Amino acid sequence: MLEVFALVERKEYISSLIQWKEEKVIKVVTGIRRCGKSTLLNQYQSWLLQNGVSDEQIVSINFEELEYEELLDYKKLYVYLKERLVRGKTTYIFLDEIQKVPMFEKAVDSIYVKPDVDVYITGSNAYFLSGELATLLTGRYVEIKMLPLSFKEFLDITKSEKEQGFPEYLKNGGLPYIASMERTTEKVETYLEGIYNTVIVKDIEDRQSRREVDPNKRKITDIVLLKNISKYLASVIGSSVSIKNIADYLVSNGRKISPNTVDDYVEALTESFVFYSADRFDVFGKQLLKVNKKFYIVDLGLRNYILPRQNYDLGSSMENVVYFELLRRGYRVNIGKIGDTEVDFVAQKNGVYKYFQVTANMTAKETFEREIRPLQNIRDNYEKIILTADMLTLGNYNGIIVKNLLDWLLEEEV
């Protein structure tokens, strides 16, 4: 029997897997390294065992473990899986960090089409979902996008009160192991250093091995450049940026580089789930704009590691938290352009929009007017919300709701 994992339980993600159980699609769990994908699979396997599935029906392989090195050959992997199918019952197949297997999609596709097979795979790099896998499995897989802990999950695990927990959440981030460990400054920094260096070096190398068959893509070989670009992106969280902006910054610091090369390196960072981008959206025209994006970092603990000993803008950190909370709640998130003004987030789900402004403090008159004006310029009847850390300006201002950020993060969305 598998042990019942007592680590951080990600209830929403387990519910998603249960919802898709035995549906004839491949379940693909993606997310940055150490956000809890392997633990999620283990916990889900325990749930299966507790709900009538036998040990022999579960085939689980973690390709980061040495004992499965021989199965990095996709043909051997296919034979191994085929030999373990249980006749007359569903076989549940779990392939963790599958991107390490070159041409894995051939084995996955071949085993997937067998009767009574339920396939679950994970990966720490979005590139593995492009190319042949997308071509072979169009319409036949569902992606479950896993993120670090929400603020609510962080409080549940650390047993903190919201007022004390929020500054720590901003400082140390929400990677599950950090929430459950003794969080001394030295331990947290050492753990984050390991995560960051592994993602930047190891995961990019995994990406490279798959890119060798694509002559149109540049190889990511300059790790110093990659780290410099990640440092720049971490420093401009919540600001509109273009690839040209980044290239100009590097040139001003003595590094001659083309925008095309910068674009490839930024793509590597987003594919490794370190940074997420949000496009700008014309609220009046209801269309995406091609110029300038904003970037948000998947975990603020990583940001604090990348940019140590700096004074941070609380507003940009709050904006980062709200962006990922909206993603967790299932929204498609863009930056809103309203004439000459901007609204922090346009969140869309099931054809319904919500508009959000995020600010640390609204007690100053000029700040209040600056934050509320873009929302006043939107003439539709969708929800308009300002999230703030202060408690003095909360209320309803002609249909524009000002909420306390911590209360919003902890509320159950209807």
Walkthrough of the structure:
The strands form two sheets. This protein has a nine-stranded mixed sheet. It has a five-stranded parallel sheet with strand order 2-3-4-1-5, sandwiched between helices. It has 16 helices and 14 strands. It is an alpha/beta fold and 414 residues long. The protein is globular and about 70 Å long. The model is unreliable at 1-6 (pLDDT under 50). Helix content is 42%, strand content 21%.
Q: Strand pairing plus helix content: what structural class?
A: alpha/beta
What share of residues are in beta strands?
Answer: 15-25%
Beta strand count = 14
Major beta sheet summary: 9 strands, mixed
N-to-C terminal Cα separation, in Å? 38 Å
Low-confidence stretches: 1-6
Read across the widest sheet, the strand sequence of neighbours is 6-8-7-9-10-11-12-14-13
Q: What is the share of helical residues?
A: 40-55%
Mean pLDDT: 91
Number of helices: 16
- N-to-C series of helices and strands: HEHEHEHEHEHHHHHEHHEEHHEEEHEEEH
What is the approximate shape?
globular
- Taking all Cα atoms into account, the compactness measure Rg is 22 Å
Please supply descriptive tags for the structure shown above.
disordered N terminus, nine-stranded mixed β-sheet, 414 residues, alpha/beta, 16 helices, single chain, five-stranded parallel β-sheet, globular
